[in-house]
Amino acid sequence: MVKIAPSILAADFMHLEEEIKSVEEAGADYIHVDVMDGKFVPNQTPGLEMLKRSKASSHLTIDTHLMVENPSEWVEDFSLSDILTFHLEAVSKEEIVSLIQKIHEKGIKVGIAIKPKTPIKELVPYLSMIDMVLVMTVEPGFGGQKLITSCLRKVKAMRKINKEIDIEVDGGIYPSNIEKVKNAGANVIVAGTAIFQESNRKLAIEALR
Ligand code: DX5
Ligand code: ZN
User: Fold this and answer.
1) How far apart are CA 24 and CA 92, in angstroms?
2) 34 annotated active-site
3) What's the pLDDT tens digit per position in 143-193?
4) Which domains are seen in the chain, by residue range?
5) Which residues keep their CB under 5 angstroms from ion ligand 2?
6) How far is the CA of 170 from the centre of ligand 2 (A)?
7) Which of 104, 192, 176 is nearest to 140 (CA)?
8) Is the dihedral of CA 38, 45, 64, 161 positive or negative?
9) Is the pTM of this model over 0.90?
10) For residue 174, which ligand has an atom nearest its CA?
């Protein structure tokens, strides 16, 4: 069964605790926290505050998505996360293995994300060292975008290479396209708008499952 990870980027920040509780009660598996620094992506989010408020108001797995330059410098602050995902494009090749180790040493699972234009072959050397890959299905930076269908080919190819690893997808996922996404082999589904725009969160999550 797929895991559903509501992205709180689309939630009402003024009532974040209630928003988080509503998706927890509705059967969400993870809380997806989008951290943007205004450099790696043009947008900025109060990531640390989002993380702390998520951790305080839910027992769910906290799935933090770092869209930042120099992610290594962010690990300490974000060590409340259960899964910490950084972008391959934000780290030099020489640094990747030590960054994976640094996160694992804190007892946190490691994810590596790739943007739509980054080929999966760049990720393959690290697959045996990490817990999750995040194949972005939109350009990172904003919620509410349209899914780039060609990214699903990368999901398919990744699943062929590794049957076990968690493959997360993020961006533009709705009940109308979820079938294609699952068929490609993704098993962790991030959805912001598709969940938080619906007043009935249980129906929204069930529709994705
Ligand atoms: C985009 C973020 C996503 C975003 C998804 O850069 O990583 O997590 O919140 O939002 P939707 O589901 O609205 O496309
Ligand atoms: Zn995200």
Assistant:
1) 37
2) yes
3) 999 999 999 999 999 999 999 999 999 999 999 999 999 999 999 999 999
4) 3-208 (3.20.20.70)
5) 34, 65, 170
6) 6
7) 192
8) negative
9) yes
10) 1
